[in-house]
Amino acid sequence: MNDEIRRLIEHIQLQPADVKQRIFDAIQSEVVVHPLQLDAEFMIDAYTILEAIRRSSPLIRRGVRGVIGETVFSLYVAPHEPVWKPMSFEGDQAYDELLTNGRTAVRVQVKMQRRDGFEPKLYRGGYVVEVQRTRTGTSDAGGSTRPYRIDEFDILAVCMQPSTRDWRNFLYAPVKRLAVKEISPHEIATMQVLPEYPALGHGVWTSDLTEAINRQLS
Predict the structure, then answer these.
(1) In the prediction, which pLDDT does 1 show?
(2) Residue 13 forms part of a structural domain
(3) pLDDT category, 135, cuts 50, 70, 90?
(4) Residue 73 belongs to a domain
(5) Which among 191, 171, 189 has a CA at the least distance from the CA of 181?
(6) 48 located within any domain
(7) What pLDDT does residue 138 have?
(8) pLDDT tens for residues 198-217?
(9) CATH number (domain holding residue 100)
């Protein structure tokens, strides 16, 4: 970065917010905020993509929020764990992230705390997360394909943004401590009750990912 550009940046940084916005509005059509803008499938500016989300139905926005939660965990939470680090995997799996300590791999499924309108949904005296696939269908045996089995992932990570307003706040539970269906104990119950973040001293949920993994592996 040469001195002229540095001075220009410093000058802009000293401007009030409304002036910065006017500058951005003037140049945004020429700025690539994200590589997706150049993807052949979209080829559209970031503002239009966000406006499309704003105009979308509640169902679509709910799906987008779920993807945001997964992305926040992948970009800002998992890489900063002191022991467990992300590793690559292939295919459409029942988990969203695969972590390893160099010896053991742990599968993490990421979900969003449920909302009712714009407020956290309450269920049986607490918050709630819905643990099932978004797609519908039936298996060859006639059962629903939406439920997760207890052997499909190891840790459930729930983004608590609806109640904390912070996308980086997660609660974690080992799969073996989750509620299961009474008529099908190999399947995880769809509705799981959540405590308030950070769930200090809770027997199932914790805000410490390493602690949740240790509970699952012990």
Answers:
(1) 72
(2) no
(3) low
(4) yes
(5) 189
(6) no
(7) 46
(8) 999 999 999 999 999 999 99
(9) 3.40.1350
| Band of residue 136 on the pLDDT scale cut at 50, 70, 90 | low
Rounded to whole angstroms, the Cα distance separating 168 from 165 reads 9
Q: Which tokens sit at 137?
A: 């269908």
Helical residues (DSSP H) of 73-175, grouped into ranges: 161-164
Paired residues of 113 in beta bridges: 129
Angle made by CA atoms 19, 21, 27, in degrees to the nearest 5:
110
Contacts of 208 (CB under 8 A, 6+ apart): 172
Residue that has been written with the tokens 């160099």 in this structure = 102
Q: Using one digit for the tens of pLDDT, what is the confidence trace for 89-127?
A: 999 999 999 999 999 999 999 999 999 999 999 999 999
119 φ, ψ to 5°?
Answer: -115, 155
Token couple for 47? 């503002």
The closest alpha carbon to 64, from 189, 139, 138, 159, belongs to 159
